[in-house]
Design brief:
Layout: H1 2-12, H2 22-36, H3 38-55, H4 68-117, H5 124-136, E1 139-146, E2 149-156, H6 164-174, E3 179-181, E4 185-192, E5 195-203, H7 212-279, H8 285-317, E6 325-327, H9 329-339, E7 348-352, E8 360-362, H10 364-381, E9 387-395, E10 398-404, H11 427-431, H12 438-448, E11 452-457, E12 464-471
Parallel strand pairs: 7-9
Antiparallel strand pairs: 1-2, 1-5, 3-4, 4-5, 6-8, 9-10, 10-12, 11-12
Helix pairs in contact: 1-2, 2-3, 2-4, 3-4, 4-5, 4-7, 5-7, 7-8, 8-12, 9-10, 10-12
This protein binds adenosine-5'-diphosphate (ADP).
Adenosine-5'-diphosphate (ADP) is lined by residues 373, 377-378, 381, 405, 407, 410, 418, 423-426, 429, 434-440, 464.
Length: 475
Amino acid sequence: MVVVATGFSYLIEPIIAPSNLSLVYLTAVLFSALRYGLWPSIMAATLGVLVWNYLFLPPKYSMTIDNPQDVLALLLFLIVSLVVSNLAALKLRQSRAIAARAKTTTQLYLFSQEIAVAGSLKDLPPIITRTIGAMLNCEALLLLRVGNGLELSAGYPQKRELDAVELSLAQAAGNGTPGSLAGRLLFMPLRSQRGIIGVLGVDRSLSQSLLPDEERLLSILVDQTAVAIERTQLAETIDLARLEAETERLRSAMLTSISHDLRTPLTTIMAAHSMLRSLGVSCDPATRRELFERAEDEAERLDRFIGNLIDMTQLESGKMKVKLGPIEVGDAVESALARADHLVVRHTVAVDLPPDLPMVMADFMLLEQVLFNLIDNAVKYAPQDTTVGIFANMDDDSVVIGVADQGDGIPSDATETIFDKFARVKFEDRQRPGTGLGLAICRGFLQAMGGTITAGNRQDRSGALFLIRLAISNV
Ligand code: ADP
């Protein structure tokens, strides 16, 4: 800067008084201060004063000064230079600090975005070490607490074994004392509300030492890491607890259902049996027939219930074999009705199938079981002497089969939940024999056949309406 100012001074020397050249050198000081800070600008001021005096102030080429006014000019130059240097250097520091803060903010924002993407505790550690390592250009290691010890869970640029010294540093950090090794390796505890949940290590040897700004950034990153890990750990614990509660709920529903549904028919059968035995030959034929029929009904109910349980287990274990082929809907309906014959004694069944209905892709046994379960429900949940309607029609490349009853229908908020296992909508429903498995099986079977089943209510009157959709068979 001083050299440039001197060259310029030579150029304008003929037209300007030597004392006024101070302005040229002052400009040089100002630029140095703005560009390089306080000390370089003081250096420029000192150099400037010497060169200006030696080359331009009379007598030329000597350090002495003739004119007392020039001494004043020189002093003034020094004072103004100092003020300018200080102000400019301050400005420079401020703008650098602002730039650094902006950079830190951006990096923190990027970090939080990166860790927000990680859904599970498994994905989080690699993302953390990669982001921190890349941000600070250093090696990053993340150790998480497992039981009483620490376990290395991720590393950048790669996961590696810690040596004995590093391990003891990490352990000290795990106990709450941050430690560093020869200013190279730095281990910091990850503190959360539940104590220290792990340790973050950065190895500075790749990038020499960290700048103060970077250290500040690192300590914020450590805090954020702790929060992120704790959050995911909590979320997973809650999920697990929820899953356990759900399993527990299902298990107790199943136990209640099984004990109730096994017991009711068995009690009836046993009562009928002991009555038949105690009455012996004295029993009149009508009573005998009634007792036998009742026992038979209940035995069948028991059989259906156990069949449902077996179907469900097979569905869940994925062992169910599905034989898809072209099926005549009418055949399946007829077969289901024949099986349900003794259930529909107090109801009327109206079947309405168009004669030109195409065949569907299905498994006969499964489709028949679905229809049977729907008819069983229609009879169970609609009052006596009402009609159960079974119809079908073509819709694009599928066939829709409907089963409609004339009962109270299904509450609008339950049209999906009734397909859950052990779901029983209303309290009264629990009084009727049933397991809450029938519809779950229907849905499972239809999924296995590539079809769907939905529940709703009739538009024309009260009553439930179940719709089955199956693809048309093009074989
Ligand atoms: P289950 O009949 O053994 O209880 P399902 O899975 O077949 O089990 O049915 C689940 C629940 O859906 C029933 O308990 C009942 O509340 C309701 N539901 C099923 N079918 C009907 C229907 N046709 N009308 C009214 N509610 C029904």
